[in-house]
Amino acid sequence: MGAKKRWCPAASEAITSQQCGEGREERYLCPLDCEYLTEARMHEKPREVAPEEFPNRDVRVTEEFLKRNEPLLTFAAPMLAMAALEAEACDADIREALAALIQTYRTLESGLIYDTKPANPYAASIYTRMRELAQKLAEEIAKQTGSHTLRDADMLGIYVFLESLALQHDNGRRRGRRFLTFLLAYFPPAEAMQGAQAGAEPESGLITG
C-alpha cells in the first residue's frame, strides 16, 4: 500500500506528508491558512541573526524613535503585508522591496529624487504600492493640517526596522512567508487605517512643521 496522501491546494493534487515536508515553501507557495503549514510554523525556530548581518546599521532605530513613530509603523506594516498578498509574493520579495525602498529614501534624505525600483516583478509591485500609499498619506496629512508632511527620515527608519524584522523571521525557505505571517498577526490590516487617521493629527510623530 502506498503512502497516505492529502490534498494540497498549492500543488493542486494529492501529495504525501513527505512531499509536503520537502516541498513546503520551497517548491510550493503554500496558502497561509493551510493547517499543515500552521502546524509546521509552531516548530520553526526564530533565526539568530548576528549584529553584523543587519544592513543599514548606520540608521539608528531606537525605542524612542519607534514610540514616536508608532502611528507610522501601524500604517506601514499592514500595508506592506497587504501589498505582498496582492502581489502573491514571498518573504524574499518583501526583503528585496524593503531594500529598494530604503535606498530610495536614502537618496531623498540626501536631496535627490531617484526611485530604486527592483527588477523582480513581485518586489517591484510591493515597492510601487508602498510608494503610492506613502504619497497618499502625505497628501492626506497636508490636506488636513495645511502645512505638515511625512518626514523622509522617519519613513527610512521604519523601513530599516521592518527589514530587520524580516531578517529575523526568515525561515530559510525559498518561498517562505514566515515574515508575512508575522506581519498579519501583529499588525492587522485594520490598524493601517488607524495609523492613517493618527497621522493627520498635529501631535503625531508622522508629521513635522
Key features of this structure:
two-stranded antiparallel ribbon; 9 helices; 209 residues; mainly alpha; 2 strands
Distance between the termini: 73 Å
**Oligomeric organization of the protein chains:** single chain
What is the total tally of β strands? 2
Considering DSSP H and I runs of 4 or more, what fraction of the residues is helical?
55-70%
Overall radius of gyration: 19 Å
Instruction: Report the portion of residues in β strands.
Output: under 5%
Overall mean confidence score, pLDDT = 87
Spell out the helices and strands N to C. Answer: EEHHHHHHHHH
Q: Give start-end ranges of low-pLDDT stretches.
A: 198-209
Largest sheet: 2 strands, antiparallel
Structural class: mainly alpha
By DSSP (H or I, 4+ residues per run), the number of helices equals 9
Q: Which geometry do the CA atoms define?
A: elongated
- Number of structurally distinct domains: 2
Order of strands across the main sheet: 1-2
Characterization of this structure:
The protein has 209 residues and is mainly α. It has two domains: 1-43, no CATH class; 53-199, no CATH class. Helices cover 56% and strands 4% of the residues. The chain is built from nine helices and two strands. It has a two-stranded antiparallel ribbon with strand order 1-2. The radius of gyration is 19 Å and the shape is elongated.
